[in-house]
Amino acid sequence: MAAVISFQNVSKRYGDITAAHNLNLDVAPGEFLSFLGPSGCGKTTSLRMIAGFEQPSEGEVFLEGERVNNVPAYRRPVNMVFQHYSLFPHLNVMDNVAYGLRQLSSKPSAKEIDLRVSETLELVQLTGFNKRRIWELSGGQQQRVALARALINKPKVLLLDEPLAALDRKLRREMQIELQNLQRNVGITFILVTHDQEEALSMSDRICIMKDGEIVQIGNPLELYDRPKNRYVADFVGKSNFFEGAIGQSNKESVDINLDCGLSIENIPNSKPGEQNVGDRVCISVRPEQLVLARDENQLPGNIALKSRAQVLNRIFLGEQTEYVLRNEQLGEFLALSPRRNELSERPFEINETVFVAWNRDTALILDGAT
């Protein structure tokens, strides 16, 4: 299936500053793709080059196979929802939503406009809000109006520039689900820019991780979480503990790591046979939920990669899980997540308590040492 959007060796510079460098990306029709990264990584610049608000300094941008370099924004089959919605305060809901239709050279009839507005408001669950003024709406309702205004012209691609950033956490979660449902209902390509990893992981078919204007890794949420390409991705997508070291021994099946702290981890499954040599700098990545905590050493599972004792420094209740900050003299500070169900049968670990910590060999990821 041909890509609806394609970047081919695209770069964007502002004077001496390179905002995007050599981007290559294909977005499939009907896909929900997110650009994820910290401020200044190039994600918004990439979105604006799709929209036509910015033109690439090098390379080519294609929409449905047509090269659109220097094609103005108003001639591209895309629409954008901005972070602050940019609604017209002097117009009611209906007139805000109908605005795009009324700007068409072949403007529909008033009856057709009314019908299209009603259908679109129903799509975003705002039936009956036609005459409401913008200041009479909640933040979530204003966001829906912005979505309706962007969708009414039936664009091929909907661009979302951090549209949920202004909402509180509960409403933001609700709108994430509604956006997913909306995207499935309308069947068009959604491209989201966000710095919120939870938002990207929960909504996207694929995520494009960016750093310093470059694409670091593209994949679905499971791939990025379970098989990050490097430490940067593992650190940005979810939480992880990192332990620095070097390759001590390597074969096709397993790798031994000599940690800088003096500990050694043996027989870790080799995910990159032939790519790592003795002495190469690496780091071990272990997700907090993969650490096992126990008061009794006999409660630890088999196939342990490393076992140590650690002191509980802090405890944070997260509802279904409890997060512990622990410290070991050699490993330093690290995080562990304990499922709430474990603490229903056994009391939670207390601050300053000493516990056993271990993880399974199969859960440890060997990553390049560079971030």
Topology record:
Layout: E1 5-14, E2 17-27, E3 32-36, H1 43-51, E4 58-63, E5 66-67, E6 78-81, H2 93-102, H3 110-123, H4 139-151, E7 157-161, H5 169-186, E8 189-194, H6 197-203, E9 206-211, E10 214-219, H7 221-226, H8 231-236, E11 241-250, E12 254-259, E13 264-269, E14 281-286, E15 291-294, E16 304-317, E17 321-328, E18 332-339, H9 340-345, E19 354-360, E20 365-368
Parallel strand pairs: 3-8, 3-9, 6-7, 7-8
Antiparallel strand pairs: 1-2, 1-4, 4-5, 9-10, 11-12, 11-14, 12-13, 14-20, 15-19, 16-17, 16-19, 17-18
3D structure, described in words:
The structure is a single chain. This protein is α+β, with helices and mostly antiparallel strands. The protein has two domains: 5-234, Rossmann fold (3-Layer(aba) Sandwich), CATH 3.40.50.300; 239-368, OB fold (Dihydrolipoamide Acetyltransferase, E2P) (Beta Barrel), CATH 2.40.50. Helices cover 24% and strands 36% of the residues. The chain contains nine helices and 20 strands. Strands 6-7-8-3-9-10 form a six-stranded mixed sheet, with helices on both faces. Helix 3 (110-123) packs across helix 4 (139-151). The protein is globular. The mean pLDDT is 88.
- Average of the residue pLDDT scores: 88
What is the H level of CATH, i.e. the homologous superfamily of the largest domain?
P-loop containing nucleotide triphosphate hydrolases
* Helix count from the secondary structure assignment: 9
Contiguous uncertain segments of 5+ residues? none
β-sheet strand percentage = 35-45%
Q: Termini distance? A: 35 Å
Per CATH, which architecture of the largest domain? Answer: 3-Layer(aba) Sandwich
- Count of DSSP strands: 20
Largest sheet: 6 strands, mixed
Number of structural units classed as domains = 2
The coarse silhouette is globular
CATH topology of the largest domain: Rossmann fold
Compute the gyration radius: what is it? 25 Å
Order of SSEs: EEEHEEEHHHEHEHEEHHEEEEEEEEHEE
